[in-house]
Amino acid sequence: LNERWQFSESVEYLRDLGALDETSPGNKRVIIVNYITGASNCFGTTKYHEVCCISECESLLAHLERQFAAPSVSPEDIATVVAAMPSATVPAPRTLSNVLLHRL
């Protein structure tokens, strides 16, 4: 993967989903948690129901929200907690790459 993620969804779709942050003109961003839990990550969708996969990210994000319980947190604090979090695919402690740390 290169440094940029390529979304196939339209701006209108992301906006309707509530996954588009347009607060900075000319610098649209995707709100990851809203994107992950959006309908594009479900299958078997009808007008009556959706079948969606449980995302491992939900429990990890919930842990971070409980840990900080604040509207903003320093990148250093986020990195410290994330590095100590185990997941189903990565044991703790984990080493965060320089690229990830820079993105924070």
Q: Can I get a quick summary?
A:
The chain has 104 residues and is mostly helical.
Structural features, described:
- It is a single chain.
- The protein is mostly helical.
- A two-stranded antiparallel sheet has the order 1-2.
- It contains five helices and four strands, in the order αββαββααα.
- It is globular and about 40 Å long.
- 3% of the residues are buried.
- It has helices at residues 11-17, 32-36, 56-68, 75-84, 98-103, and strands at 20-21, 29-30, 42-43, 51-52.
- A hairpin with a 7-residue loop joins β3 and β4.
Label this structure with key terms:
two-stranded antiparallel sheet, two-stranded antiparallel ribbon, globular, 104 residues
N- to C-terminal distance: 18 Å
Give the count of helical stretches: 5
Unreliable spans:
none
How big is the Rg? 16 Å
Major sheet: 2 strands, antiparallel
What series of H and E elements makes up the topology? HEEHEEHHH
Q: How many strand elements?
A: 4
What does the average pLDDT come to? Answer: 84
The dominant shape is globular
Protein structure class: mainly alpha
Oligomer: single chain
Q: Which sequence of strands runs across the widest sheet?
A: 1-2
SS strand fraction: 5-15%
Which range best describes the helical content: under 10%, 10-25%, 25-40%, 40-55%, 55-70% or over 70%? 25-40%
